[in-house]
Amino acid sequence: MSSQARLKKKFSQNYRYGFADPERALFRSPKGATHDVVDIISGQKKEPAWVRERRHQGLDFFLGRPVPAWGADLSEIDFDDIYYYIRPVERTMMSWKQLPSTIKQTFNRLRIPQYEREFLAGVGAQYDSENVYHHIADKIKETGVIFTDVETACKKYPSLVKKYFGTVISANDNKFAALNTAMWSGGSFIYVPKGVRVDLPLQAYFRINAKNMGQFERTLIIADEGSFVHYVEGCSAPVYVASSLHGAVVEIVALKNSRVRYTTVQNWSKNVYNLVTKRAHAHENAIVEWVDFNFGAKVTMKYPAVFLLGEGARADILSMAFAGARQHQDAGAKVTHVAPNTSSRIISKSISAYGGRTSYRGLVYVGPKALNSRVSVRCDALILDKKSRSDTYPTMKIMTNDANIEHEATVSRIGEDQLFYLQSRGLSREQAEVLLVNGFIEPLVKELPMEYAVEMNRLIELEMEGSVG
């Protein structure tokens, strides 16, 4: 066996996301986005009346809006052929030992219990439509930090949820945010009290296991004045012929002098439409950081956004996308400067190979009152072969003369001279390409915790081998 074949076999064996479990749902709603299904979901969850009313309002908005004609091709989505709610367990567990054996084996293979023991302050795990596990370390809980699912938060902390739910992303923001408002299930609710620093990350893991599944988790993070929290999100799904739909909504409220870091490592299988809305409000001197990695998925449309509402607020958005054969990664970032002395930095890196397509879609708006604002945008695209494609769609609307704006973009291929140099040092061409790609994304990977940085390098090698999906 050649060294390249051994490498491919090694990483294929280590790839922990390309597997499916038997489908053993306790409850499954009828297919289709209907008001009857909304009532079924709300009834299953025994929700307050205000939540049910918002769901029906969201569905009306969804049904009244057309499918977006810009961006990636969404014409093949059949919204009537999707299960919008699948319940895998009777209730959320507080111990891994309480989970059904198949679900427990899944998360063991993904090493989530190990990560919780070694370097996490808390973990939430969602399987299809429901959170099956949620736990927060006692020493973190004692500080007043709340980390639970949104359904529980609606019942235990209703005034807090009602105050912020839907204020960052309204039900009618876009078609898929409206669908999430109607069909949401699971996700995370985090509240960090004033002055509290959660130095270890909180993590949630989202797993789609069923065919024709729509997963619509809803995440709401509130960082009170002077607090800090790092939230890590991971996602995966097995490979099926039928397409699945992932339509999450994430709302972040960063109050005065707080800091929130949101890290996403998504590796969906290549039958998933990944259509999400993620946005933050940053108040006075608050800092919001998105670190966003996108692998897999048939189509991704994702543009983490920050509204800089308070003076001195700051946004850092680091985005990476890898598109292989029959994939379109349409990703980017949006920042809106409302207040003076605000700053933003956007760094986007994309890789397209085997005929894949990447698109950077960005928006920077600097309002007339955002005096002395600073903006830095850098977009770098790497194309690995002649069949692949990369596009850039930057939009800047600057409404004041008192601002410092920088924009830089590059599109390049791997140079034959670079490959020749590395091959002359004993590497195969394939190994040399992997090394150059890892070097290309290294400035973003170093922003990850070590465990995720190692995983990122594995994913890159798998994608370069063409063995994922």
UniProtKB/TrEMBL annotation:
Q: A biological process (GO) annotation for this entry?
A: iron-sulfur cluster assembly
UniProt-listed Pfam families: SUFBD_core, SufBD_N
Report domain SUF system FeS cluster assembly SufBD N-terminal positions.
141-203
Question: What SUPFAM superfamilies does this protein's entry cite?
Answer: Stabilizer of iron transporter SufD (SSF101960)
Q: SUF system FeS cluster assembly SufBD core domain: which residues?
A: 206-440
Q: Which domain of life is it from?
A: Bacteria
Q: Which InterPro entries match?
A: Fe-S_cluster_assembly_SufBD, SUF_FeS_clus_asmbl_SufB, SUF_FeS_clus_asmbl_SufBD_core, SUF_FeS_clus_asmbl_SufBD_sf, SufBD_N
Q: Which family does it belong to?
A: Belongs to the iron-sulfur cluster assembly SufBD family.
Q: Which PANTHER family match?
A: FES CLUSTER ASSEMBLY PROTEIN SUF, UPF0051 PROTEIN ABCI8, CHLOROPLASTIC-RELATED
Its name, as the record gives it, is Fe-S cluster assembly protein SufB
Record lineage = Bacteria, Candidatus Komeiliibacteriota
